[in-house]
Design goal:
alpha/beta; Rossmann fold; seven-stranded mixed β-sheet; 5 helices; about 30% helix
């Protein structure tokens, strides 16, 4: 697994073979980042279920200003820490997504782009979106990027700007106007 474009292009990332992680395939990542490229420069990004950090690192590589990485697995967080070596403008939060979202709310941290790629079996996208909307964590014209398999969910305020299936994986992107 590697960074596919931008400043960190070619950087190897660990964690593709660890239970509980499911890295985004390169062709899905390429299509996804082509869709959000104009939103990346100087953006504040949240990689909520970070795993290896592949999505957040790719965002930083392509012009994001800062990225917050959240994961609740100590094992995965140690690998994420290794993947972030040499990458600046990051903050790593080791804990539950609900705790992290509450922390961001209490510290008035809002995001331009939020990646939601939780373990498919846990169906956490709807709960995440509900808290993001309730806490007002997404900026105007911000994006919520969801990667999932079969989960059903809805955004109350976001408009779908991309909805695409790649084999078993699906990507849905909401824009908050």
């Amino acid at each position: 697994m590697r960074v596919i474009s931008g400043k960190y292009k070619g950087k190897s990332l660990k964690g593709f073979d660890i239970d509980g992680t499911r890295p985004t395939m390169d062709r899905v990542k390429e299509s996804l980042f082509a869709s959000i490229q104009s939103y990346l420069p100087n953006s504040i990004v949240l990689d909520l279920f970070a795993g290896s950090g592949s999505l957040g690192i790719e965002a930083l590589s392509n012009g994001a200003k800062f990225c917050y990485f959240v994961d609740n697995s100590s094992k995965i967080n140690s690998i994420l820490k290794e993947n972030l070596v040499g990458i600046t403008n990051t903050y790593q939060f080791n804990g539950d997504f609900k705790e992290a979202l509450f922390y961001f709310k209490n510290n008035n941290i809002k995001f331009d782009i939020i990646f939601l790629d939780p373990p498919y079996r846990d169906n956490l996208i709807q709960d995440s979106i509900n808290l993001i909307e309730e806490y007002g964590l997404i900026k105007e014209n911000g994006l919520i990027v969801c990667e999932y398999e079969k989960e059903l969910f809805n955004c109350n305020y976001g408009k779908i700007i991309k909805d695409k299936k790649y084999g078993h994986k699906c990507v849905k992107i909401y824009c908050y106007k």
